[in-house]
Request: fold
Amino acid sequence: MEASTACGLKFSDDITLFDAKKVPKIGSVDFGKVAVLLGDDSPERQVSLSSGERVLDVLKKAGVNCQAFDPVNGVEGLDRNHFDRVFLALHGVGGEDGLIQGYLERVGLPYTGSNVLSSALSMDKGRCKSLFKSVGLPTPEYCLPRNFDDVERFVSEVGLPIVIKPNASGSSVGVYRVFHSNELSKAYEAAKSFGSPIVERLIAGADYTISIVDNQYLPTIKIVPKSGFYDYESKYQAGMTEYHCPSDLTQEEEQVLARMTFHAYQVLQCRHYARADWIRDAQGQFWLLEMNTLPGLTNTSLLPKAAKVVGVSYEDLIHYLLFQTLPLSVRGTVMAKSCV
Reply:
């Protein structure tokens, strides 16, 4: 089934809950030599190291010939002469914004996650939200301020509270909520230290996240930070947040959220996997905040939590994501053998 938008674009509504039975038995698959890219020098380096080290450990235990590769000192040796494919465990600028993807395309190395264009668009929150609005997806009002006057002008139009954050970053790095006008200038200057900022209306409500893996959705997770704000510490410090999966959404509500997420996934031309962050306001309206094309894969990350609920272990999830880098013909053969 297809759905049309006001601007004439068409998207498939055919998305179903991830079927763990369709995960192939790929223990015998020859992936060749795999580079696990981790680290780099973005503000999200520590998160990337945690994701990458976990991925590396899983692949090594499965007998995959793999090696950690930290591009912080350059990409010399990251080519077809040394590796057959790449598992991307990078986060933030340089790793999620199409830069490393462009390099890998140039040297001919297949890699996990979305392509150059999708990565670049998804990392740029302003362009991303512009696309969401163009296809009728609900996203909070926003502006890309050139100066502080633009911020004040935006506040005069939408009112407080607002959120100021880097336009191209993740993991809640450099995110500031502003409830009072005397906090505005300080928050703006602080956010600017992480790059060009974006300002958006703060939506009060409950946090939800939903992941897409190979054009199927995983169960929604409701996020309940003990501090009331899902910031960096709440995301990565154990015990700071409660996660409810399955969430409190009805089956119908979750399917609506999955379809809207799949629309966003398609308009951004994502592939392999991604995770969308939403807020549901007091009236029950969902608001799309952003799409993450390389969501975290740490011990506390959300995508592995949701996969576990449908019977997919962390190990099987990592193998399945790497499996997506194989040629379609090879994947078809493996899938056929797994069904025998």
